[in-house]
Amino acid sequence: MYFQMQRRLSDDVLPEIRSICMEELGLWMKLYSSAFLSDSYLKYMGWMMYDKVNDVRLKCVLSLQGLYADPLLVSKLDLFTSRFKDRMISMTLDKDTEVAVQTMKLLVLISKCVTCLFVVLVSSHVYCRGEASACFTFMQVLICIELQT
Known about the structure:
Elements: H1 2-10, H2 15-31, H3 33-36, H4 39-48, H5 54-68, H6 78-90, H7 97-111, H8 116-125, H9 132-148
Helix pairs in contact: 2-4, 2-5, 4-6, 5-7, 7-9
C-alpha cells in the first residue's frame, strides 16, 4: 500500500507534497531501514534529485546525508551510489546555491566511505562555488584520501 501511495505522491503536481514525501521517505529509511532502505524505495529518492523545484532536490540531498552519515546503512547504498553518482556530482553545480552546498557536504560523507574511484570522479568534476567552508571541507577530504593512498 505504501508503495502505491508513495508513487502517486511523488508524482504530485504540488512541489510541497513532493518535498514532504522525500523528507519523510528519508526519515523512514533511517528509522526503519530493514523495511524501507531498499532499491525499490531508494529509486524514488534518486528520481526526485532531477525535480525542477529546488526544495524537492534539497530534501533529497538532506535525507541522503542522514543515510550516508550512518555507518550501518552505507553498505545498503552501494547500488544507489553507483546508479546516481553522476547526478550527485552534477548537483554541485546546481542553480540553487543551497542545493549545491549541501550536495558537496553529501559528497564529503560519501567520499569517507566509498572507494577512491568515486573520489577521482568527483574531484575531476566539482568546481567550488557557493559556501566557501563546504568547498574547503570537500577539498580537505580529497587531499586526506589522496595522502592515504
